[in-house]
């Protein structure tokens, strides 16, 4: 029997890994559980991902792409170059408003998706292979926000957004847009 060419198999395996992690946490992830979820032979998962860490790296990278894409697609954050002076003139209000809007939109979606992203992000604490990917997300977010402020302020904004997200997720609370906007505005106002 000829082998069937499946150009999307790697993507299906990553999607299956995300489904397994969402349902059972990282502890439930194995090549076997992912193969069953993706409906592929076990050998396909080990062919595409030699280790579970490789699979987790691909899954974290997929999650990171989602939020960074949201930042990239924000017209308000894309204000740079010639529009930079006007954007800075808008001060803390414009940038804080946009970041609050993006976080609010993110929390208005499925909470499980946010929990999944942070579970993978925090897995880097115990899995060194994930650390560079977690750092990539931070660096890309800082780079995007640096279009509107200086890099140090951008880094502080990313740290605050991470902190707000973690507090909402861990405390089981709701996203407080007014508080978040005020704290973001304070950081921007104190920056360059």
Summarize the structure.
This protein is mostly helical and 192 residues long. It is 73% helix and 0% strand.
Describe this structure in words.
- By secondary structure, the chain is mainly alpha-helical.
- It contains ten helices and no strands.
- α4 (52-73) packs across α7 and α4 (52-73) packs parallel to α8 (131-145).
- It is elongated.
- The chain starts with 8 loop residues before the first helix and ends with a helix.
- The model is unreliable at 81-89 (pLDDT under 50).
Return the structural class.
mainly alpha
Find the count of extended strands (DSSP E, 2+ residues). 0
* Main beta-sheet strand count, sense and barrel state: none
Q: SSE order, as H and E?
A: HHHHHHHHHH
Shape: elongated
Amount of beta strand: under 5%
Q: Could you name the ranges where pLDDT drops below 50 across 5 or more consecutive residues?
A: 81-89
Binned, the helix content reads over 70%
Straight-line N-to-C gap: 65 Å
Oligomer state equals: single chain
- Mean pLDDT across residues: 87
Alpha-carbon Rg, integer: 19 Å
């Amino acid at each position: 029997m000829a082998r069937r060419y499946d150009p999307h198999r790697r993507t299906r395996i990553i999607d299956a890994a995300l489904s397994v992690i969402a349902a059972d946490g990282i502890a439930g992830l194995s090549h076997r559980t992912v193969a069953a979820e993706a409906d592929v032979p076990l050998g396909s998962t080990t062919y595409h991902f030699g280790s579970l860490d490789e699979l987790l790296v691909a899954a974290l990278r997929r999650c990171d792409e989602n939020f960074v894409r949201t930042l990239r697609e924000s017209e308000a954050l894309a204000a740079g170059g010639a529009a930079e002076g006007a954007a800075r003139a808008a001060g803390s209000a414009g940038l804080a408003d946009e970041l609050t809007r993006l976080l609010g939109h993110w929390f208005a979606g499925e909470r499980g998706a946010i929990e999944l992203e942070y579970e993978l992000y925090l897995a880097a604490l115990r899995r060194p292979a994930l650390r560079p990917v977690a750092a990539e997300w931070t660096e890309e977010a800082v780079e995007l926000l640096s279009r509107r402020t200086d890099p140090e302020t951008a880094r502080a904004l990313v740290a605050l957004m991470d902190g707000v997200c973690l507090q909402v997720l861990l405390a089981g609370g709701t996203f407080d847009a007014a508080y978040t906007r005020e704290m973001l505005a304070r950081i921007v106002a104190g920056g360059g």
